[in-house]
Structure formats: structure tokens, C-alpha cells
Design a protein that fits this description.
Blueprint: H1 2-12, H2 15-27, H3 34-40, H4 46-51, H5 68-84, H6 89-108, H7 121-133, E1 137-142, E2 150-155, H8 158-167, E3 173-177, E4 184-187, H9 190-199, E5 206-210, E6 224-227, H10 230-238, E7 244-249, E8 260-264
Antiparallel strand pairs: 1-2, 1-3, 3-8, 4-7, 5-6, 5-7
Helix pairs in contact: 5-6
């Protein structure tokens, strides 16, 4: 009986009433135009972000690593899209304000410098070119989280140097010096000590590197000592009498220049991070 009543009511509608009803129903839905689709496409990636917002894995999105100078204009565009599709005024203003803030921050903040890698072609090419033009270069190797442990090493061939770099652990710092370092070489005796004392300027920091292969199988295990006075220099050399050493002023600067380059050993995934030295 109820169904019959419904049909009876439908029969009571005139053709004009039916057309008006259908027109009203169509007006309650907005048919997307080609322009609407084009505006909506760029903001489609935001949909899963909003859906996943309360879920646990959303916190793993690296918001802090996203470039603000790119993210800011994108959020501004999202605000424009929200306005175009008639979102509330407050929502549109909130999105636009967030986009403007991100854009300004991205424009003024300094982009962190990318640390050079020991596998970088430019770094390796420089080392190779240096060794082609001279007989030897010295490198300073600083080991991360080893209480300041470091080694000074000489290389005469690029092949040996490349092999050494491949053996170092991630976050190890490597600084290479183009100019000759520790030019005084020889076995320590009275004559050699006198030569060193006259060569090293007073109050200059010195470096003594033992290069005797009888004392260590690998040169990164060679003993080294630094100091700032002639008395210290003489004391260090007296303790190394009869041994083969290299002596000179301590490298003045570790900053990159045409004659000094530095790099860091990358992790297995390719990321480059500085260590604690």
C-alpha cells in the first residue's frame, strides 16, 4: 500500500514539475570544467597527505628536508586552488599565509653546503692531476669518534692513494695538500737535529712524522708529534735518534684553496656526513 501511495504521488507531478525537479537536482552538483581539472591536477599529491595525516607513518615524511623555496610556492598554489573551488575564506587565508611564510623563509635562509665526497670525480681528478705534476703529495686523515686520532701520509701514485681512500670508514675526513710538506727528510742525528732547529721558525708549530718502515708496516700507523717551541722539537727528535723522519712546519690551514682540498668518506647509501674529530 505504501509503495502504491508513492507511485500515486509521482503520478500527481505534471511534466513541468518533473523537469523543474531534475533541473534543481543538477544545479546542486558542480560539473568540473577543463579549467577545473587543470587547476586540480597539481594539488592531487596533497590528497594522500591529508588522508594519512593522523596515521603513524605520516610523521616519517621529512618535512624539514623539503626545500622551502619550492614548498612555499606550492602551498601558495594550493591556496589559489582552494579559493577557486570555493573553500571557506578562513581556510584559504590560512593556506596562503603558510605558503607566504615558507616562501620568505626559503628565500632568506642559507642552504647548507653539500659536503664533498672522496668518491667525487672532481676531488679524485684533482688528486690525479697533482700527482702527474709532482712526485708526491701529503694527506691528513682524521678519523671520526676516535678521540682526535689522525694520520699524515705521503703518496707518490694515484693508484695507491685511491686504494687507501677505499679502505677508510664513513665520515672519515681527508685533506690533501698540493704543496710539498715536511721537506726535511733523513735519519735523526746531531746534524739533522741542528738543521731542523735552524729551519723551523721560532714559535712556529712544527710536525715530526716518523717514516721508518721498520717501525710500522703501514704508513698510517707512523708515529707523529707536533709542538710549538724549539725545545719541544729538540726533545721529540732526541727521542727518535737513528730513525727515518720527515720534519716541517705544521700545515697552516685546512681550509679549501687551490692548494688544499678536503672530502669526506661517504656512507654505503651515498650520503656524506661530517664526523666528530
Amino acid at each position: 500500500m505504501k509503495r502504491q501511495g508513492c507511485f500515486e504521488r509521482i503520478r500527481d507531478f505534471s511534466p513541468v514539475d518533473m523537469l523543474n525537479f531534475l533541473e534543481n537536482q543538477r544545479s546542486s552538483f558542480r560539473v568540473m570544467t577543463t579549467l577545473d581539472v587543470l587547476i586540480a591536477i597539481p594539488v592531487v599529491p596533497l590528497v594522500p597527505v591529508f588522508i594519512a595525516w593522523p596515521l603513524p607513518w605520516e610523521r616519517w615524511i621529512p618535512w624539514g628536508n623539503l626545500p622551502k623555496l619550492v614548498l612555499g610556492p606550492y602551498v601558495l598554489y594550493a591556496g589559489f586552488a582552494a579559493w577557486h573551488f570555493h573553500f571557506s575564506v578562513w581556510f584559504v587565508l590560512l593556506v596562503v599565509a603558510a605558503g607566504a611564510i615558507l616562501t620568505v623563509i626559503g628565500a632568506v635562509e642559507k642552504v647548507p653546503a653539500t659536503l664533498p665526497s672522496t668518491t667525487d670525480k672532481k676531488f679524485l681528478k684533482s688528486l690525479e692531476d697533482w700527482l702527474r705534476g709532482q712526485s708526491e703529495i701529503m694527506i691528513l686523515v682524521r678519523y671520526s669518534r676516535t678521540a682526535g686520532n689522525k694520520s699524515f701520509e705521503f703518496y707518490t701514485s694515484f693508484a695507491a692513494l685511491s686504494k687507501r681512500l677505499g679502505l677508510l670508514k664513513a665520515e672519515t675526513s681527508v685533506t690533501a695538500f698540493r704543496k710539498p710538506q715536511l721537506p726535511l727528510r733523513g735519519h735523526v742525528d746531531d746534524e739533522f737535529i741542528g738543521k731542523c732547529l735552524s729551519f723551523i721558525p721560532a714559535s712556529s708549530e712544527f710536525l715530526v712524522l716518523e717514516t721508518d718502515p721498520r717501525m710500522a708496516t703501514q704508513q698510517w700507523l707512523y708515529y707523529h708529534e707536533a709542538g710549538e717551541s724549539r725545545d719541544e722539537l729538540q726533545q721529540v727528535l732526541e727521542g727518535l735518534r737513528g730513525r727515518l723522519v720527515a720534519v716541517g712546519t705544521y700545515p697552516l690551514s685546512l681550509k679549501d684553496s687551490p692548494d688544499v682540498i678536503s672530502a669526506y668518506v661517504p656512507h654505503q647509501d651515498g650520503t656524506v656526513k661530517g664526523g666528530v674529530y
